[in-house]
Amino acid sequence: MLVSYKWLKELVDVDVTSAELAEKMSTTGIEVEGVTSPQTGLSKLVVGEVLSCEDVPDTHLHLCQVDTGDESPRQIVCGAPNIKAGIKVIVALPGARIADNYKIKKGKIRGMESLGMICSLQELGLPDSIIPKEFSDGIQILPDEAVPGDSIFPYLDLDDEIIELSITPNRADALSMRGVAYEVAAIYGKAVHFPERTLLEIEKPAADEISVAIASDKVLTYASRVVENVTIKPSPQWLQNLLMNAGIRPINNVVDVTNFVLLYFGQPMHAFDLDKFEGRDIVAREAREGEELVTLDGETRELVAGDLVITVGDKPVALAGVMGGRDTEIDDASKNVVLEAAVFDGTSIRKTSGRLNLRSESSSRFEKGVNYATVLEALDFAAAMLTELAGGKTLAGRVIAGNLPTEPVQVSSSLSYVNARLGTDLTADDIKDIFKKLGFGLEISGDSFTVSVPRRRWDISIQADLVEEIARIYGYDNLPTTLPESGSTVGELTTSQRLRREVRTIVEGLGLSEIITYALTTPEKAVEFALKPSNITELMWPMSVERSVLRQNIVSGMLDTVAYNSARKNTNLALFEIGKVFEQTGNPKEDLPNEITSLAFALSGLVTEKDFQTRAVPVDFFHAKGVLEALFTKLGLEVDYVPTKDIASMHPGRTALIVLDGQEIGFVGQVHPQTAKDYAISETYVAELNLDVIESHYHKAHVFKEITKFPAVSRDIALLVENSVTHSDIIAAIKAAGVKRLTDIKLFDVYAGENIQKGFKSMAYSLTFQNPTDNLTDEEVAKYMAKITASLEEKVSAEIR
């Protein structure tokens, strides 16, 4: 919200600097982003009257004689298409500063001396979006009453100070000049004084021209007035200045009046050309699926059920609360005007404006709320302004459908409740003074009091809201600073935080570097490495296709980082990331996705580089698997690795699923060569784990156990098994023997070839036994080996060699 300080001072008697006001507002609940003045950086700009204007042959230039209040006219060469004799213009004198600190100097153009510059508003630094259309391609023409030689700043209100407010949703009442005036008046204990306009009506009833109806419970009220015989012309300069300083482009006197009322009351309004109606029955209803409307910006909008529209003859003429329709817009030929003031459901307006990416000043106010008590007042005010500025005749009466509660809201509390929350000793007189400043009614009975909250403050409904208002106006800096007494508590990490920290420490200790990649990616990459792809969650307004959907895996983003580094000759990479992936099992347009914490890493290049005595060692599957084994060992978890060919982007012969307690928690393996080629990377190994599942199996660190003083005993065993038998199968068979003294199992040899039956392989294991309380005898170890042998023969049909 951009607030004109000049305008604000007309509404409330405040006589402090804009900087002081900004500081005071920020400390009482409405944050001020900053204070600027349009004239900052500009100098030596005066009013000039063009006395004569001669075309320069064979050019677009004009040789002008301009009266700038000096003894003699000033010759200036100007190329603007709308320059002509008899108009008042902005002149930058030699030595003047205009936008971008550009200094104007005397010079010659095509051999003609030019003693200054005739300026457009763009050349003064005003953005194109707020410059009146009639002057958007040329110079600004000043009002006839402008005096040559005078500074142009007062004529265009460039000497104003613009206060930019950061309005939170709960203080949408400050999205109007009246709302800001009430706030400033409360801060400084002043009174507001709002100008009134008397509405003169003719005898002809407005109800003879139009009728109004509501056909949706999302429309709370709809009110209209008819103004006939208006003259469409530019608004007076003061009105154009107000709108431009508020960031709104002046259009014409009718449209500008509706925008003025929007800024003044915070009440969105719209003006229709009555003569363009194909009927006289105005109905506010919900759109039908597939209906279309061409809005004022010339875009054809396809409507869906739930959008609110204003219809005439059952044909949409406006997108309610968002933007009007082109077919009924006000143009230079308009004579009869229908003014609209309504209240629409904020949720519906937000959904429509969001779906169409069509945010407007009106939609933002309907989304946050409007003052019920001034809807009709704003309508009458706009009609009175049209009578004054457009010469229109207002027909008698309003045409209204629906009604709104306008009486104050009663909210009760007590002095003890307030003082207990604020730590103060406020009295009944203090409370009276505070609510008097706010303009609220108050009734006190003993310790209790009831506040009559006007409808302009729809954010106040419970007693906690009253406490906040009291604290704001009383002054946060006046509240006691003593901290409340409370028992001390011991801070502690959650299980999730503890797991992430431990995983990060372990993986960094293994030589991997942490990175952070985008959670947004393309639709294809979002599901590329996902074990169980789900519905895609798309952004409504993505910055680009590359950042349009939420990821369902981290690996694809890491491969982009690998490719970025590889392209810059940084090929030996060991990277990891702990982040969120997003699983969408519901309706992507309505339901939020499930957030899953994942760990992913990528390994590429060499583990050990070649030197004079060491050969180069490239990354392989077993190195990637070793990282996981070290991680799971530190976490005290046992997992199984199951070969898989089901992940299309992974190498079918070098990829395994990771299974924890019967549940798939991730995968590890080599990126498919074709996928690696698509990413422009070399041979790369990746893994991704579901940390949320790991967390459910994660426990605190093991309690220290004293190292036994009794020696361990090792035995080797060689097995002949079928090729289909896996290492995991053998480990499970050995453990199934139930030997309590078995402390370690290591595979040290796998052989298949000569002297081995076809379809079979030889696997050799080293088994370690240890008794923590006594020495083991050979007879005990022999019994253990016999039990293990029997289990192997039974479970995997092993032949002991």
From TrEMBL:
Molecular functions per Gene Ontology: ATP binding; catalytic activity, acting on a protein; magnesium ion binding; phenylalanine-tRNA ligase activity; transferase activity; tRNA binding
Localization annotation: Cytoplasm
Residues where Mg(2+) binds: 459, 465, 468-469
Domain TRNA-binding: 39-153
Cofactor(s) required for function per UniProt: Mg(2+)
Superkingdom of origin organism: Bacteria
Chain ranges passing through the membrane: none
Record SUPFAM superfamilies: Anticodon-binding domain of PheRS (SSF54991), Class II aaRS and biotin synthetases (SSF55681), Nucleic acid-binding proteins (SSF50249), PheT/TilS domain (SSF56037), Putative DNA-binding domain (SSF46955)
Reactions performed catalytically: tRNA(Phe) + L-phenylalanine + ATP = L-phenylalanyl-tRNA(Phe) + AMP + diphosphate + H(+)
Signal peptide: none
Cofactor: binding comment: Binds 2 magnesium ions per tetramer.
EC number: 6.1.1.20
GO terms of biological process kind: phenylalanyl-tRNA aminoacylation
Chain ranges of the FDX-ACB domain: 708-801
Residue ranges constituting the B5 domain according to the UniProt record: 406-481
Subunit structure as annotated in this protein's UniProt entry: Tetramer of two alpha and two beta subunits.
Family recorded in the similarity comment: Belongs to the phenylalanyl-tRNA synthetase beta subunit family. Type 1 subfamily.
Protein name stated in the entry: Phenylalanine--tRNA ligase beta subunit
